[in-house]
What we know:
- 40% of the residues lie in helices and 12% in strands.
- With 309 residues, the chain is an alpha/beta fold.
- It has one domain (3-10, 23-307): TIM Barrel (Alpha-Beta Barrel).
- Strands 1, 2, 3, 7 and 10 form a five-stranded parallel sheet that branches.
- Helix 2 links the parallel strand 1 (18-26) and strand 2 (59-62).
- It starts with a helix and ends with a helix.
Amino acid sequence: MNTKNQNKKESIENKTSFDVVFGFDMETDIGSYTPYYNGVQHGTPFILEVLEKHGVQATFFWTGHAAENNPNIVLQVKEAGHETGCHGLFHETLGDEIFPLPNNMPILPEEVEGRITRATNIVKEVSGTNPLSFRCPRLWGSTKVVHILEKLGYIADASFPLYFYGEPFVPYHPSGEDWTRQGEMNILEIPNFCDLTMESQDEYNRDRDQWPLFRTESAEFLMEKVENFISFVRSRDKRPVLCFYLHPWEFYPMPQGAISFGECSVKPLPFITKNCGPKAVKQFDELCRLLKERGGRFVTAKELAEEYK
Length: 309
């Protein structure tokens, strides 16, 4: 083993620190609730400013539609030194549905490969970079999806919703029979962390999740969840990896209340858009500071996957 790889191995095994992967899901405003890209256009610059201030590199997961409709932002992110990943073709369900959503049926199994392939090609064409890291919309992945990703050359998938499955709680190479279990596939599955120490009051364990606490509560509040997760993982003699999922629309003021579309209106629950804009920017800045102060090592999804080979 050469010196560089030895240093990587020692860094992974060092239990006195932890890794942080910031993932930004580059999609339409408020996920599937609108067709707009105000967040991508106006929220992304605030994200880049905070990341530059703290010297942090992140992974930006682009839907194909977002990339081809915002090529200037794709290149701005790339030129800032961040990783370009993929988030599917549209903000649609590609994997296993965890809980039902109205008027939002999952993509048919026979369509999944074609849509991921098309999305990958669009992101590559717009960015000039072959994406190697992926994240399913809503963190709804599947065994079928990881097989497709590995076939397409992806080395990292940051789709695993730890709040729902509970384990594995550290990055792992999934089984070809069940993506939620350790196996022999080459792709690295990176769980999105949650508070595993709390007793959930929700049938899907969503109250254990990290999102969107940094802005609905505060960075300090979220750090309590971070500390709980770190303690939980270290008590089992593993190195913690904190994978975050965030969105550009959280960093720009979003509509409050009902959103009208002529034939209907959509009214997200208040917490979905609470404190989007300046407060989210301020709290994200504080979160970066607190994670650095705590000893976090910031890496992209691609970098982490390369280290776990």
